[in-house]
Specification:
The complex is a heterodimer of chains A (about 220) and B (about 220).
Chain A lengths: L4 H41 L3 H15 L3 H14 L6 H26 L3 H9 L4 H31 L11 H12 L2 H35 L1
Chain B lengths: L5 H5 L1 H33 L4 H16 L2 H14 L6 H27 L2 H9 L4 H31 L11 H12 L2 H34 L3
The chains are: A mainly alpha (about 220), B mainly alpha (about 220).
Amino acid sequence: MDFQFSVTLEVMPALLYGARLTLYFSLASACLGIVLAVLLNLLLLSRNAALRGFYAAYVSFIRGTPTVILIFLCYYVLPVLRIDLSPAVAGTIALAINLSAFAAEILRGAIAAIPKGQIEAARSLGLATIPSFGLIVLPQAVIRSIPPLMNEFTFVVKSTPLLSLITVVELMRTGQQIFSTNFRPLEVLLGVALIFFVINFTFSKLALLVEGAVQKRLSR
Amino acid sequence: MKFDFTIVFQYLPQLLWGLLVTLEICVVALCGAFVLGLAVALMRTSSSVVLRAIATVYVDIIRNIPFMVQVFMFFYIAPFFGVRLSAMTIGIVSLMIFGTAYYGEVMRAGINAVARSQYESGLAAGLGHLETMWRIVLPQSIPFLVPTMTNNTISLVKESAILSTITVPELTAAAQRVTGITFSPFEVFLMVAVLYWLVSFAIANIASTIGSLLLGTRIVR
């Protein structure tokens, strides 16, 4: 058997369409995941030990469980709860939940790095707990966490092929559909790998640039 | 809404058998990845441009392509060259190749975290490059390495779940098989999630114990 690179080029337009879907799913789960991460960090503000305990348990469980399993759990819990959602939505939620645990830890680290004086200043100006967190601490913490969060985004992109396991059509499944008809798995998978490489490589290099900019801004 | 966990407990032995396979795969693949990762780290910190370039390209390619895509490529590349390998072998090899890049990056960062003067003093004391690395630089990078290597090991064990897609009979595959018998996927996958979590939890604890033992004996201030 011979390797024909022309096949890779031939299927590229179809794969790029799949890549667009992959990016949509990644962006949707990233947005939802970061919102969840901020909400999780709100739990840590509470004096209630049960809420802080929930944070610890949630983060530990999600970080200790494979993404595939989370995807299956979100997919199969729907009929049990009698909720009718498409596999794409269930999968996006699963990826968001997975990201939320990692992003919450990044945010927690960034929040811990904000000088205590900032919170005290906000409180002495008369801001309540939540507004001083939302208006003073969070914006500063978010700037610090942008580079690691961008890195986390590449992990989201890299876990989207798992959505193909619950029948969601994205880049990986598009590839599988193509090579199940043209019987050229290697050429097609090379195309899939190339697209993933370009997306993630660009994004991780961009994260490095942003990190430099953030460092410069913070050291000023 | 109805959950029935009793049926899952009936099939627990099958799941535990799958867990055993997962652990076997991970031990073999990750031990290999540890050694190869060290080689990659030494290449990335070497003075030779060629070695550095090869290691950098390797790490960049592996780290920027999803593991599932890599596993599928290995699965189809073997017959392409007329070689017949079991799914198990392909699974172990692909996890090893994947892990090498991640471990290599961590070790490189660990080497770079040690002050350069330590390396230079090693050379000045008459040690060769590799001996300085092995005896002076690497032992001092351990405090940096332990937490990051632990996190990486946990995520590599989690990635091993993807091997179920090429029919490796590990924990996730066992779960799918049991689901096919009991028709209670949610309960089964929840049980499996707990099993994976226990493994991650155990790794984290074992690693922190090893870390404190190593720090007690190896680090000389």
